[in-house]
Target: GGDEF domain-containing protein
Amino acid sequence: MSVRDSSSSRTIVDLDPSAGSGARQSAPARGRRPRDDPVVAADGSPRASDSPGLAPGPGGPMSVLVAVCALALCAILSAALFDSRRKRRELEQRLVVADRAAHTDPLTGLANRAGLQRALDHQRATTRPSDHIAMILLDLDGLKETNDLYGHDFGDSVLVAVAHRINEKAGHAACAARLGGDEFVVLLSGEAPHDADALATELCAAIASAEVMSEMPIRCTASAGVAVLPAHRMHQLVTAADQAMYRAKSTRAGTSRYQPLADVADRIPRNRTALVALEGGASKEAQA
Model:
């Protein structure tokens, strides 16, 4: 370091090398900043370092970590969505199986009472009041004696064979059902009710020709009752067909069609005593 003496025009030169070197080392170079100085933004806030290893840029470790986490989250969500869809399909299949079991006779595969009621509800909702609905009610003859003679397993085989013949002959029907025991029902709609009598005769003939077992050539017969009513009287179909069936069984006619006037005539003798009693009670109340 050199100092100029103002009193004399002499220049004093400090030749101490340690002082000069220390001064040079302590003074930072102009235009350069030390590495340990913090980098401060124009507003006074600290900024990220210029070191490429710590910078959170597009290729930094933080970006890689975020990408890995995003991919893992997508994989977890995809697996959860796939599992939920699989469980939903399994639940839908179970519901279909449960619905089929609730409306199907387990022995014959035909509809049961619940299945028949659902078919009636569907017909009630889809047919016009002026349309006609037909029902054929079949009752097997002598099934109780067959069960007593050959056992209930053989009787079940008879029911299965009858159901197979009903499916063959009445496959176009709106519903074929087993009401329980030895009673079967065929529900017809559209143009089919006009052919209900002919179909009932065919069903009785097909049941009579059904062979249950080749080693036991036993034939089964059936009585059929036919009822054809307007759609607005659909709730009376089962009762009307049942009355016609019992008339066919009692007369051994094979098939019988529901006749409202004949049914009333049959019920008058049986109910005459009840009518007289009711009339007597009403007259006493009127006199009182």
Notes: The CA atoms of residues 3 and 12 lie 5 Å apart. The chain has two domains: 65-103, 113-280.
